[in-house]
Design goal:
Layout: E1 2-5, E2 8-11, E3 14-18, E4 30-33, E5 36-41, H1 47-53, E6 66-70, H2 76-85, E7 90-95, H3 98-110, E8 114-118, E9 135-140, H4 147-154, E10 158-169, H5 170-173, H6 179-190, E11 194-201, E12 209-216
């Protein structure tokens, strides 16, 4: 097992997180080496893992971090972020789906660093009271036409010089315009608040998706 980033490891072509809590979350493979438990991270089920697999140079998550995660769904990627930030970290998870939130709440009962918030990520006033001290990392995986604008609204919570990552879904913005043109347009919007550090194409794991690594100015 080779260390790739803090709490993220690789073995062959596969990525793993050091298991914060024992047990599977979504049917992932579990392995034990030298008495340490690891959970395999599937890039076909996680945009962030797809980005790491395709060469993301920096990991926005770290042990003890406070994270704002927009579009948390049922918690597949969130569970691996939970492994990374550990007991001293917190993940504020925002999602609008009541069905997904029910499953996330059950996950949070085992993983106490997961804090579910049922809300529209575009209405930051709904949850700003929980984030008054700011966050160390911002991640978004939201399939909406105004996804970049949502990310920019939530940037107010990200501390200066801290990192964020936007999973950009070009087909949610336009199904007729070329994905490269969409990417360029959305990149310009992000540059009003962020320094763009890297753009990673998520194919073959996701079609028409990019992971955009940014730093808050």
């Amino acid at each position: 097992m080779e260390k790739k980033f803090n709490e993220i490891y690789s073995k062959g072509r596969n990525l793993y997180t050091h298991a914060f809590i024992d047990g599977r979350v979504y049917g992932e493979k579990l392995i034990t080496e030298n008495g340490i438990n690891y959970r395999e991270w599937n890039p076909f089920k996680s945009k962030y893992c797809a980005g790491l697999t395709n060469g993301l140079k920096e990991n926005i998550f770290f042990k003890g971090a406070t994270v704002l995660y927009l579009g948390s769904a049922e918690g597949t990627t969130v569970s691996h972020v939970s492994d990374i930030v550990g007991e001293e970290g917190n993940i504020f998870c925002v999602d609008l789906s009541e069905i997904a939130m029910q499953k996330l709440v059950k996950l949070s009962e085992k993983r106490e660093n997961i804090l579910p918030i049922l809300s529209d990520a575009g209405i930051v006033d709904n949850y700003k009271e929980y984030l008054e001290d700011g966050v160390d990392a911002l991640f978004q995986d939201v399939s909406q036409k105004d996804q970049t604008e949502i990310f920019l609204k939530n940037a107010v919570f990200l501390k200066k010089n801290c990192l964020g990552a936007l999973s950009l879904k070009t087909l949610s913005i336009s199904q007729s315009e070329k994905k490269e043109k969409i990417l360029e347009n959305e990149k310009k919007k992000l540059e009003s608040v962020f320094e763009i550090l890297q753009i990673v194409n998520l194919e073959p794991f996701e079609t028409g998706h990019y992971l955009i690594l940014v730093k808050k100015r």
